[in-house]
Automatic annotation (TrEMBL), chain A:
<comment type="similarity">
    <text>Belongs to the ABC transporter superfamily.</text>
</comment>
<feature type="region of interest" description="Disordered">
    <location>
        <begin position="1"/>
        <end position="22"/>
    </location>
</feature>
<keyword id="KW-0067">ATP-binding</keyword>
<dbReference type="InterPro" id="IPR050388">
    <property type="entry name" value="ABC_Ni/Peptide_Import"/>
</dbReference>
<keyword id="KW-1003">Cell membrane</keyword>
<dbReference type="InterPro" id="IPR003593">
    <property type="entry name" value="AAA+_ATPase"/>
</dbReference>
<protein>
    <submittedName>
        <fullName>ABC transporter ATP-binding protein</fullName>
    </submittedName>
</protein>
<keyword id="KW-0547">Nucleotide-binding</keyword>
<keyword id="KW-0472">Membrane</keyword>
UniProtKB/TrEMBL annotation, chain B:
<comment type="similarity">
    <text>Belongs to the ABC transporter superfamily.</text>
</comment>
<keyword id="KW-0067">ATP-binding</keyword>
<dbReference type="InterPro" id="IPR003439">
    <property type="entry name" value="ABC_transporter-like_ATP-bd"/>
</dbReference>
<keyword id="KW-0813">Transport</keyword>
<keyword id="KW-0547">Nucleotide-binding</keyword>
<dbReference type="InterPro" id="IPR003593">
    <property type="entry name" value="AAA+_ATPase"/>
</dbReference>
<dbReference type="InterPro" id="IPR013563">
    <property type="entry name" value="Oligopep_ABC_C"/>
</dbReference>
<feature type="domain" description="ABC transporter">
    <location>
        <begin position="44"/>
        <end position="296"/>
    </location>
</feature>
<dbReference type="Pfam" id="PF08352">
    <property type="entry name" value="oligo_HPY"/>
</dbReference>
Length: 352, 380
């Protein structure tokens, strides 16, 4: 999207204008935390966008800034100690960072909703799930308690919780992990948002339950034509559901690509390392490829490219100059749509 | 002791006899433990191991109203120098098995033979000697290291409990050697756990497990709490140490691709029972138990091109409660093959009849009445 209508002050209703443009666009976002030991730069210039019906997977290790970016988008960052010194977050063409708290509250839950990782600690243990689900309708739509409960039951049915009517008054601890995660999904879906941010939605679940939950999420996304930002570190889950991928490292996006491309030809040494460290059949009994070293401390991010101390291709330029996210092309210069890499030696990585 | 229902005892698989050692005194028992085991011989033999946790009611007059059947009759062998992977969903009893082998929990019934001695019956000096030889690496490196102790104290504590392992003057040097072995700087000996990253902490946990020169290390989800890029480092370290010290690993994990990489044999558990056990190729490429097939098909494959073509078996519902497991085959409530027979008869863990004669990889132990091969997408 190139033209941003900053004069429009009413949020665009679903499906009217901006149908072609992205739903959410994050531009040059910076987030830092002021701690006793110094300033931790958690996010250092992140750009990404999601359109309706599209799934963006944000891949990264702990401390890479993937969750902090999502929290900034949701507007649930703890400020202080957090601070957003720079950047814009456009939702349907409007910069959310310039909105008042009340305007943001209107968007949160109704337009953008979030699914958290740990369902047990995200749900209130002393309130029944029906009450917590109904809260969305009572607060945002002003429904009565009775109507809200009826809606809650319908939602629980929607996410296929068996015997929803009988279980609506149960408390979170009475549900299994997979069921709790369904309740989290139901809560996020309650007001039919345009965009859902799922922060490691299945990390705490077993693989068989993970498959159920991811299937459900994909189906609901299709039905409502929602945008989905999936935050994860699991390369398998990403391959299963994502349309495009953004790989984060030390608060920066180091590579972006459509899902089919990145697994075949990674254009950043970090992505390449991650893919190579997956145990493969033909390597049984051999040593696994391992990225050496440790993820950086955000208080002391290495100068130049943050990945340089762990990189096998690092040269002098990597230690001094921060590589920008540049478009990646074929050897003959043909553009590869949607691909970018923040590496001085992306050419060698992808073609070499 | 919880009341045992007959079925769990009946489900004896066709496993080899255990050559037991009958030691009259502690001294004899300890001496027998020092005997070496030949490569490829079983070092640990588990027979019909059962652990029921009682459910009680009432405060003053506690009355047992039932039992959580966490482990309900499992048998397997662990051979010298091999890695046996145990996989299964949470709540299937993997970690309880680990605790039973460590004798951190007392078994309700069944035996664990270590070099021919039943360690569930041992106590005192003999038990201490066994514990020296079976060590554990825990899942969470953040909570399994005491934050108030230095690394040197954490690893050195093992020598205080087993003083015969290293004379007093040498302990510090030994701890430094251990740090070096696991790839940490020996100068870090006076640091505290919070000064290390997750991967480094897990290395400290591994050094502690190695300190007494054990023969068996039980690893309960040793890498699942680590970052993806660090997991491979720790797995490589564990493989290197296995070669160097001729260790036997019992490797409990839920990440099927890592288990496949490190294991020689793999056992699949479901609700306190072993569903299927065999070599890694037998389990991953020729699974015959429906649960194994469902588990493997559910693993997301890191290849986007595979997502359209693959057939996924999505199990409905959750794992039933181990306090009240289904009759007959425990998997029948979620199984697409279930018939009347499955509700009444407990399937034995044995090589299925139809594969017995042939020499196919499908001929491995599987606890299903209707065991057959199914080509599921391999978890690479």
């Amino acid at each position: 999207m190139t033209i941003i209508d900053k004069t429009a002050d009413v949020p665009a209703p679903r499906g009217s204008n901006d149908e072609s443009g992205p739903l959410l666009e994050v531009r040059d976002l910076h987030v830092e935390f002021h701690t006793r030991d110094g300033v931790a730069k958690a996010v250092n210039g992140v750009n990404y966008s999601v359109s309706a019906g599209e799934t963006l997977a944000v891949l990264g290790e702990s401390g890479s800034g993937k969750s902090v970016t999502a929290q900034a988008v949701m507007g649930i960052l703890d400020m202080p100690p957090g601070r957003i010194p720079k950047g814009e977050i456009f939702f349907r063409g409007q910069d959310m960072l310039k909105m008042s708290n009340e305007e943001r509250r209107q968007i949160r839950g109704q337009k953008i909703a979030m699914i958290f990782q740990d369902a047990l600690s995200s749900l209130n243990p002393v309130l029944s799930v029906g009450y917590q689900l109904g809260e969305m309708f009572r607060v945002h739509q002003g429904l009565s308690k009775k109507d809200a409960k009826a809606k809650a039951i319908a939602l629980m049915d929607r996410v296929r919780i068996p015997a929803a009517k009988e279980r609506v008054n149960d408390y979170p601890h009475m549900f299994s992990g997979g069921m709790r995660q369904r309740i989290m999904i139901a809560m996020a879906l309650a007001l039919e948002p345009d965009l859902i941010i799922a922060d490691e939605p299945t990390t705490a679940l077993d693989v068989t339950v993970q498959a159920q939950v991811m299937d459900l999420l994909a189906e609901l996304q299709r039905d409502f034509n929602m945008g989905l930002i999936l935050i994860t570190h699991d390369l398998g889950v990403v391959a299963d559901v994502a349309d495009k991928i953004a790989v984060m490292y030390a608060g920066r996006i180091v590579e972006t690509a459509p899902v089919h491309e990145i697994y075949k030809r990674p254009a950043h040494p970090y992505t390449k390392g991650l893919l190579e460290s997956i145990p493969r059949l033909d390597q049984k009994g051999q040593e696994l490829y391992a990225i050496k070293g440790l993820p950086p401390n955000l208080l002391h991010v290495p100068s130049g490219c943050a990945f340089n101390p762990r990189c096998t291709m690092a040269q002098d330029i990597c230690r001094t100059e921060v590589p920008a996210l540049r478009p990646v092309t074929e050897q003959d210069g043909t553009e590869l749509v949607g691909r970018g890499s923040a590496c001085h030696f992306w050419k060698e990585t992808i073609h070499g | 002791m919880a009341e045992l229902d007959k079925e769990s005892v009946d489900a004896t698989p066709n496993v080899t006899e255990v050559a037991t050692v009958n030691a009259a005194t502690d001294t004899e028992a300890v001496a027998a433990l020092d005997a070496p085991v030949a490569q490829g011989e079983p070092i640990l033999q588990v027979r019909n191991l059962v652990k029921h946790f009682p459910l009680t009611q009432g405060i003053l007059f506690k009355k047992q109203v039932g039992a959580v059947k966490a482990v309900d009759g499992i048998s397997f062998d662990l051979y010298q120098g091999e890695t046996l992977g145990i996989v299964g969903e949470s709540g299937c009893g993997k970690s309880t098995v680990a605790k039973l082998l460590m004798t951190l929990e007392r078994a309700t019934a069944g035996e664990v033979f270590y070099k021919g001695q039943d360690i569930t019956k041992l106590s005192g000096r003999a038990l201490k000697a066994v514990r020296r030889n079976i060590q554990m690496v825990f899942q969470d490196p953040y909570t399994s290291l005491n934050p108030r102790m230095t690394v040197g104290d954490i690893i050195g504590e093992t020598f205080e409990i087993h003083p015969e392992a290293a004379p007093k003057g040498e302990r510090r040097r030994k701890v430094q050697d251990l740090l070096d072995v696991v790839g940490l700087n020996p100068e870090y000996i006076n640091r505290y756990p919070h000064q290390f990253s997750g991967g480094q902490r897990q290395r400290i946990g591994i050094a502690r497990g190695l300190a007494l020169n054990p023969e068996i290390i039980i690893c309960d989800e040793p890498v699942s709490a680590l970052d993806v890029s660090v997991q491979a480092q720790v797995i490589n370290l564990m493989e290197k140490l296995q070669d160097e010290f001729n260790l036997s690993y019992l490797f409990i994990a839920h990440d099927l691709s890592i288990v496949r990489h490190i294991s020689d044999r793999v056992g699949v558990m479901y609700l306190g029972k072993m569903a299927e056990i065999g070599t890694d190729t037998q389990i991953y490429d020729h699974p015959t138990h429906p649960y194994t097939q469902a588990l493997l098909s559910a693993v997301p494959v890191p290849d986007p091109d595979a997502r359209e073509g693959r057939e996924r078996i999505i199990l409905s519902g959750d794992v039933p409660s181990p306090a009240n497991p289904p009759s007959g085959c425990r998997f029948r409530t979620r199984c697409w093959k279930a018939q009347d027979k499955c509700a009444t008869e407990v399937p034995l863990l044995a090589i299925p009849e139809r594969f017995k004669a042939s020499d196919t990889p499908a001929a491995h132990e599987s606890a299903c009445h209707f065991a057959e091969e199914k080509d599921v997408v391999h978890a690479a």
